[in-house]
Model the fold of this input.
Amino acid sequence: MKSIFRHLPSMILIFASASAWAAPKESAMKPFLDRLISRMTVEEKAGQLTQYSADMAQTGASLKDNYKEDILKGRVGSIFNAYTPAFTRELQTLAVEKTRLKIPLIFGYDVIHGHRTIFPIPLGESASWDLGLIEESARIAAREASADGVHWTFAPMADVSRDPRWGRVSEGAGEDPWLGSRIAEARVRGFQGKDLSSTETVLACVKHFAAYGAPQGGRDYNVVDMSERELFETYMPPYEAAVKAGAMTVMTSFNEIGGVPSSANRDLLTDLLRGKWKFKGFVVADYTAVNELIPHGVAADEKSAVDLAFNAGLDMDMQGGLYSNHIVQLVKDGRIKVRDLDLAVRRVLEAKYRLGLFEDPYRYSDEERAKKSLLTPEHRAHARQIARKSAVLLKNDKNVLPLKKSGTIALIGPFADNKRDQIGNWSGAGDWKQAVSLEEGLQQASEGKVKLLKAKGANVTDDPRLIDFLNEHGGNLEIDSRSPQKLIDEALAVAKKADVIVMALGESQGMSGEAASRSRIRLPENQQELLKAIAKLGKPVVLVLFNGRPLALELETALAHSILETWFLGTEAGPAIAALLFGDENPSGKLPMSFPVNEGQIPVYYSMKNTGRPFDAKQKYTSKYLDVSNEALYPFGWGLSYTKFEISEPKLSTARIKLNQKLNVKVTVANVGDRDGEEVVQLYVRDLVSSVTRPLKQLRGYQKVFLKKGESKELSFELSAEDLKFYGKGMKWMAEAGEFQVMVGANSRDLRAASFHLVTTAR
Ligand code: BGC
Done:
């Protein structure tokens, strides 16, 4: 690896004290940055707080075509959407060879579920409930991204969401704050590793702070308004967990909360994040979020927007260019204090220092390493493994699955050979052409013993406006020239020849993700028509779903014998799904988010409260709908296996614990079916009487266990008062004495309970 000092004799003057480093030394950082900051003009400081998108990819309005000129003027500290060793080297050269202070750029990118090797979308990976594998995905993503010039990923997204209409549920970990926290921590550990100066790790960015997952009506970017208790109990925990796991950066959210847009919210960015949570890194705005303070209606003009955002504690302006244009004047006006400016600049420079960029700004732009590290067989093997673990078997009547490796299978639907969609949204630098489709997967896995017939059956959608939208934003959908009825007729002809029909239906990748909310979260109508026609044949029907959010599957549940939810499983989706369909692997995924019966129920989530009039079928005046149940169709934690598990009643070590004591919960899980398999044993708690109302159940632990057929195992869980705490009156974080229930089971609905008491010294 070359050092910048070799190229730049003039830099030796500036970095004299640093030239002897082997790796960046924490103790040398302060004097080094003191000296650097003392040499910077206010304009250069504003530059360090400015980030622009390069032209490789874009996720919003393009505001800056001449970003290279700004780099040359020392007015840019970070570039995003730039990768490959060659391109990052080219841009880095401008910064470190052509600017006065030669401060290296930091390159950010949305590495959301893999960089070149694409893993399941984050919601899908979350269905694996396998923290080790999730961490490994992030580690591999970091290894690939850092070999491709990237220093910083805009992940993990830690937004809890209970609204499947919101398209960005695909990027998160689902509806539960506890599971979401564990997953956010795992991702931070994977991205950042133990050593940021290693060229195999990248900075993580916790986003979107805060509560971006709760927009009214599920419409992206919309208003968020909720009680403080709900905000802190449901939405904040994953952000906090990720910050405590050491995430070095945080991104503000586009939304307001209770009238205050996040990018102008000092309580959030300074008092909570830096004050209470002791966050030491820097905060970046989401894409043009500073500019958006104007349409939000809290700033009259750009200068006031910068005043608000900067003084709220937002360090770096993404893409809008407003910090670059207005900080100098705001400092002159006395609205921004130089002390605060220096602090923000220092936070950004510290990140660069820790990444080792002052030592060698090109250390992540290494062609040789990129050649060896991208899309390797090992990375693909991991992609295949986590894809297998992420699929969820929703239904399996008459054990239609697994399929036999004999006879004739009809593979029908627009996702049978669709590679672009299977790698999902936000698939970074992933190339869908490298992916293995379901059809290819089935061919390989059937070892020539199965006759595979294929028909398209339907377009992904027949809505031309939606097709145009999807294709403008990364899709490659084509409308078939045959009429919808002709497509169905052809599919029927193929299906008639088969013993079993596998339907590959779903949403296109662009129907979830950013700016992709839907008010009806069903399969497109034309695909439903196809399914109805095929089901009439009376043959066994297996539905394989491709989608980025929970769907309302009432019709599909009535028509298909088996349903396998496969989200968008990534580069190795095809082989992973095929292994599950043929039973070479046993499904073990569990839903991280409830699937409603229909959209009118939303929000429907497992940790509902009882209300004063809980549902009672015999009473009119109880909390219910006249036309649909209160329950989700497939609840949180749901997922079947080809084998059968039995979970015993929980046995408690004691009936009473004190605040400082632990409760041990033992449960036996037995594989009583005829295959080996994995079960996720879930533990929930309920506080029966408390000073404020509490959810009927809250996840507080789980274990994923592999059991051979006939095998059983005793599992042991530990609970402490910490697991029973909540925000009481006056928003006091506390556990209250009284009776609690512990519930254990294979999903959030079918649980067995035991009771205990918490006794506090106060009573
Ligand atoms: C998204 C962020 C993303 C950013 C940069 C925004 O539109 O909300 O999640 O990191 O673009 O691409």
Summary: The first strand starts at residue 50 and ends at 53. Confidence is low (pLDDT under 50) at residues 1-22.
